[in-house]
Amino acid sequence: MNYNIAVIPGDGTGPEVTAEAVKALEALAKNHDLDFQFTYYDLGGDRYLRTGELVSQGIIEELKQSDSILLGAIGHPEVKPGILEQGILLRLRFALDLYINLRPVVLLPGAYTPLKDKGPGDIDFVVIRENSEGAYVGSGGFFKKGTPDEVAVQESVNTRKGVERCVRYAFDYCMQRNRKLHLTLCAKTNVLTYESDLWFRTFQEVSREYPSVSTDYQHVDALCMWMIKNPERYDVIVTNNMFGDIITDIGAIIQGGLGIAAGGNIHPGGPAMFEPIGGSAPKYTGQGKINPMAAIYAAQMMLEYIGEKDVADYLLMAITKVVKDDLESLEAGRMGFTTSEVGDLVVKRLAKG
Ligand code: IPM
Ligand code: MN
Prior knowledge:
Order of helices and strands: EHEHHEHEEEEHEHEHEHEEHHH
Strand order of the largest sheet: 2-1-3-12-11-4-5-10-8-9
Number of helices: 11
Number of strands: 12
Largest sheet: 10 strands, mixed
Structural class: alpha/beta
Helix content: 40-55%
Strand content: 15-25%
Low-confidence stretches: none
Shape: globular
Bound molecules: 3-isopropylmalic acid, manganese (II) ion
Mean pLDDT: 97
């Protein structure tokens, strides 16, 4: 099979880690019946500072034609917070209508979790975060800005259609994952009496179509506690954009940190965008200290998404072995290897089988 992969290395350490993900994909292509055509897009803070450009409509159209997108990281210390995030990352999410943010929280053997007495079997769940609405739409504004009477309003926009497609995806995902067949809705019905009410009702209605999936509901604050105390109770969690953002950072740290945590921005049936969730880590740029495993994991998720399940499983095997047997730690600067050496270790495992 032949795949067109758009690569957006981005800022900071994004290019270093993306290179290792591409390296792993190229190694796989050699030994399997795969052909990847990589097209690179120079998007990010450096380009913005140089040209004032974020993402053009032309690039959006090209990305829509790709089979999937690999993203490194977006974020630049010299650009005011919000500009690149809104202008590139969120723009891509919205323009491609990538309404699912899929974030597996899996503790691999050998990875360090700060949770006492918890091991790999205990931390194995997936967060499905709504990725196209909520507080992220940028609706709201200032009134009397800069005066003592200033008012700031930031609205959370939730549509029945948007909530329903996300909830439905979560039920389908839970069925297909076929582990505990248990889906948890995370919201805040005791305070967000409009938005969480819409989520709750939609969840209940859709759940009737999935009698084999057991369900429960948790307020987001309580869920933050339980994720730490009893992560083993979760199978799949579905939640809105903002809560999903927050709880997946907890997820990342209990699965071994930003060196391993990856996610996918998905519009089922269309090109999806996969990324390590660690950010651009500008202070480490060019030092070879960042763990590329999260980027390689993102490539693994991409393979699964484009339908190359066997190849994806094979890559997961290599990732798992390197994490368990080779790396001293998943943390930046503590791996016992440089960024590109970690990529080489994965390639070596792929060759050995
Ligand atoms: C993430 C990030 C983004 C988000 C930021 C960079 C806009 O934190 O992907 O989780 O909030 O979605
Ligand atoms: Mn985040």
